[in-house]
Amino acid sequence: MRPDTPAExxxxxxxxxxxxxxxxxxxxxxxxxxxxxxxxxxxxxDRPAATKLYDRLxxxxxxxxxDNPSLVRALKASNLWEYDHEAEARAIIDGVRAxxxxxxxxxxxxxxxxxxxxxxxxxxxxFTEGARLLLTDVPEPPYSTHPLLYGxxxxxxxxxxxxxxxxxxxxxxxxxxVSLDELHDPKRLWSLGSDNPADLEAEIxxxxxxLGAYREALSRPxxxxxxxxxxxxxxxxxxxxxxxxxxxPSYEDHxxxxxxxxxxxxxxGTPNLGVVPGTVPSYExxxxxxxxxxxxxxxxxxYATTLAARxxxxxxxxxxxxxxxxxxxxxxxxxxxx
Length: 338
Hints:
The protein has a three-stranded mixed β-sheet with strand order 1-2-3, with helices on both faces. The protein has 16 helices and three strands. It is mostly helical. 60% of the residues lie in helices and 4% in strands. Mean pLDDT is 86; it is low at 1-7. Pfam families: SEC-C.
């Protein structure tokens, strides 16, 4: 989520300004673009400016609801704590926990903020609350929840707690050559001051394993996303481009075909599936950028792929108890997940 290129190699302030300008041109992507801009500002050292961007997003929520307000609040809290606004950061983290978001990212960011400031008990409680909410009675933890389990494992090792069922699950999910117990060993730092070459070589191997896991996470492909037109958007699309009516006989058929395609892909072993919502204005802008007609159905999967690459896809299937991807407002298990 956050850029990690060292400041000496990138003009983070200039990149943040570019992203802000781009957000003005593409308001439908403003949330994702401004979050990236705020991350660049943090890396440049201008944390107050990053806070202003987070506040800008949160203040706009009344007119245009955010996709993930808890994520914005968690990032703001983490940023505030880094420049001595501890009380406000703690209050925001308490609010994030009380909101019980169904996305693992806010839980991980809030817990890691506590962990980085040696609030290990509170970090452990936060990781555990998130795991209990998102992973209870879940047969296979989604990829997005893995950092929740890994972070909880790490904090429990620092607290000297015995392994429990979720720690065992984290060990099972971890695929690197070095085990989680070894990676999260609190005594690792002692080896950095050792005069024994064997100790230093072992630590280099651990760091390589961590770097490999990080690179694997960064290189994970964006979701194989199915394009979902909300009812009003689909009506507008067909009225504007009647040639696409054959692609979408009815709204109900459109929803059913999305769910069926996702289930078929899942049964064939395709990982990292998602649903991405389309809008007519952004589709027309995409068609113009491709020099093609919006009436051409060949553009539809390309449009879906482009939106997914921007991070706009919603993971499928939704988390337990989360709303259905179709926008009905009903839980997925009571809607298309039946």
